[in-house]
Design brief:
three-stranded antiparallel β-sheet; DNA-binding; disordered C terminus; about 20% strand; homodimer; Arc Repressor Mutant, subunit A; 5 helices
Chain lengths: ~130, ~130
Amino acid sequence: MNIQEALKKTKKQLHESGFKLTPQREVTLLVLLENEKDHLSAEEIYFFVKQKNADIGLATVYRTLEILTDIKIVDKISFDDGVARYDLRKEGATHFHHHLLCLDCGCIEEIEEDLLGEVEGLLNRSTIFW
Amino acid sequence: MNIQEALKKTKKQLHESGFKLTPQREVTLLVLLENEKDHLSAEEIYFFVKQKNADIGLATVYRTLEILTDIKIVDKISFDDGVARYDLRKEGATHFHHHLLCLDCGCIEEIEEDLLGEVEGLLNRSTIFW
DNA sequence: TTCGATGCAAACCATTTGCATTAAC
DNA sequence: GTTAATGCAAATGGTTTGCATCGAA
């Protein structure tokens, strides 16, 4: 699926969840899709969004990310550096995946293997993994 | 191992790492040992420490917890609520364990099963798990 | 005696919020 | 036209830091 298709799909999800489709939300989604491999912080997303000549405030980026987290389009990740990062959910992913954080360079890698599948079966939906 | 033994042992670890054994550090260790089952935040630890009539500032608690994290006596855990929690390492534990956070009541449970053992074998010591 | 440790208050900084204005529906 | 969404600036709150003092070694 290319970016335009994915954008269309996520916009539809937003709309179906009862939210208005504003240009600010659209450009934030676009930045997330264009940087799917990275784990961007709100400030970084704000920076990229501004580069697209978007008229947007940082608070709106935060508010948009909160909505996207609520409707499960992105996952919010907290490492110990005091900055939350946001990760687009993989197509069809039903649960969180893990990350490796390099203590030397700070880079983040994803663990592809499904480490939690077995345990998740035991849990109800009021529970999230960490 | 009872609390007094454990305290003696962790104090030794602190000292062997080149840190001074101050009353503030000792009482912080004691609170951590007495609440081993909980996942206390710095503020909560400060509260318990103060209850022991200790003359200590919140900044010292933070500084002590940073040291204890560095020398691997505790693990620092970040959920998405903006408060770091601190978890005494289990005796002989060589890697991080996982947590379940209840979205209704906020309680935290530990996952006993070793979910990461296999993958850890692939990694060098510059890497931490999340 | 020395140098690390402490307490306090101020600084920091990511995130949230109040409010008047704007725009999606 | 209604109501949610936005931008801005101010507030929030957990954590860190500067600095003078203290005390473990």
